[in-house]
Amino acid sequence: ATYTMVDRSTCIACGACNPTAPGLFEYTEDGLSYALLDGNEGITEVPEELVEDLEDAVEGCPTDSIKMSDMPFHCQRVEAS
Ligand code: SF4
After folding, report:
1. Three-class SS string for 45-72?
2. Residue of 61, 67, 75 with the most ligand 1 atoms within 8 Å of its CB, for mutation
3. Domain 4Fe-4S ferredoxin-type, which positions (predicted)?
4. pLDDT tens digits for 15-55?
């Protein structure tokens, strides 16, 4: 299984991750990214068909803010705007 969340403390709102993985990342009004699947909780399994997009997004993030793990994350939920 694969899980993802964004470290919003290091995200610089560059806008790269949504075009790379539109099914996985969206931005709040301030431009900071969050994981769409579960409001950035990182506890919802990434669908198999989106894992490749996720790997591309992780690679493309200039600040390494997109986290990927085979274990669920536990972090603050982010409300979508
Ligand atoms: Fe933030 Fe990284 Fe996405 Fe850019 S690619 S918006 S720095 S999470």
Report:
1. CCCHHHHHHHHHHHHHCCCCCEEEECCC
2. 61
3. 2-30
4. 999 999 999 999 999 999 999 999 999 999 999 999 999 99
